[in-house]
Amino acid sequence: MTTTPRARFAPSPSGRMHLGNLFAALLAWLDIRALGGEMLLRMEDLDPDRCKPAYLDQLADDLDWLGLDWDLGWQAGKVAYQQSHRTAQYEAAFETLAHRGLVYPCFCTRAQLHAADAPNRGDDMPVYAGTCARLSPEAVAEKLKTRRPAYRLRVPDETIAVCDRHYGLYQENLARDCGDFILRRSDGLFGYQLAVVVDDALSGVNEIVRGHDILSSTPRQRYLQRLLGFETPAYAHIPLLMSPDGRRLSKRDRDLDLGELRARFGTPEALLGWLAGQTGIAPDTTPRSAEQLVEHFSWDVIRAHRENITVTAE
Ligand code: GLU
Predict the structure, then answer these.
(1) CA distance 82 to 43
(2) 2-6, 254-258, 306-310 — which one is most confidently predicted on average?
(3) Distance (Å) from CA 140 to ligand 1 centroid
(4) For the sheet containing 38-41, what is the strand order?
(5) How remote is the CA of residue 214 from the centroid of ligand 1, in Å?
(6) What whole-number distance in Å separates Cα of residue 162 and Cα of residue 172?
């Protein structure tokens, strides 16, 4: 039996889509359309402080305007593909892990975490020192009287490898490079790693294209998939887009959000053709629809970019 390739758009509705998100969405779409597979749209709105309902419709509208269509998933008024409505599924996975003794409460404050931990991989994400993993049951019971804990997954001293279509072999020793990580925050919200693994598995996603900034999460996700008995999807992490002054494009670059870009380029063909020419997907910046770009798409073109890609606004 052959399985239909299925990919996903997984935007966080914490702002309008920007050029970097568009590049990831375009490659995910071109890849799955070239494979003849299905696309799903899931709104990653776990964090109510960062995500605003108005952005949900806006994101869907921008994808629609671009011609990056999806076959299943989120639609206005339907919440099955909205993470904020999927707590029961995350709860079930969390309980499975907890019953196996792999989860423990963590009472550390943010300040303690930063003081006690070594910096990890040069970014600001610390490797957890394991302070609360060593608490006695009595100490845990005492602390639970006054504090709501976060919950962490106990990770083994084991190297987990992922074969990425673009970056090749990527591996991390979970204990050394990453540490016991958060499954559930102290405010009760489930963490990104657990939610994304549960969602991708339960919705049959087997093809994941996303930004290079998420590559370092993949060994943790691979490990969760193993613990929960899920298949591992194929991964392709893609180079990030940078501005000519060496900054990574982000939602803070207002001039590159879809509102501005739609106004500046006027048509989806003009915008997509320009982006395709800038990033090497197409040989030049001739206006082209998403559909027309499918014939130009090949991972070989992206492979030429080991590093991030600099784009220059017109
Ligand atoms: N929601 C994440 C983002 O917008 C993507 C997470 C993922 O692709 O796994 O950056």
Answers:
(1) 5
(2) 2-6
(3) 34
(4) 72-73, 38-41, 6-9, 207-211, 234-238, 159-164, 168-173
(5) 8
(6) 9
Q: Is the CB of 184 under 6 A from ligand 1?
A: no
Q: With a 6 A CB cut-off, is 12 part of the ligand 1 pocket?
A: yes
Best CA proximity match to 240, nearest among 227, 230, 253: 253
Going by pLDDT thresholds of 50, 70 and 90, the confidence category of residue 122 is: very low
Structure tokens at 80: 């099955």
Cα–Cα distance, 198 to 21 (Å, whole number): 22
Q: For the segment 144-161, what is each residue's pLDDT rounded down to a tens digit?
A: 999 999 999 999 999 999
Which residue's CA lies nearest to atom 9 of ligand 1?
196
* DSSP secondary structure code for residue 178 in this structure: I
pTM: 0.93
Contact call for residues 209 and 27 (beta carbons, < 8 A)? yes
Give the DSSP letter of residue 43: B
For ligand 1, whether the C-beta of 199 sits within 6 Å is: no
In short, whether 210's Cβ falls inside 6 Å of ligand 1 is yes
CA of 11 from ligand 1 middle (Å) equals 6
Beta strand segments in the chain, E: 6-9, 38-41, 72-73, 103-106, 119-120, 123-126, 150-153, 159-164, 168-173, 181-184, 207-211, 234-238, 241-242, 309-310
| 123-154: b (≥16 Cβ within 10 Å) or e | eeeebbbbebeebeeeeeeeeeeeeebbbbbb
For range 284-302, the mean pLDDT: 93
* Helix residue spans in 153-267 (DSSP H): 192-202, 218-228, 258-265
User: What is the predicted pLDDT for the residue at 253?
Assistant: 66
Kindly state if the Cβ of 44 falls inside 6 Å of ligand 1: yes
Rounded CA separation 258/65 (Å): 10
**What tokens does 128 get?**
């957890």
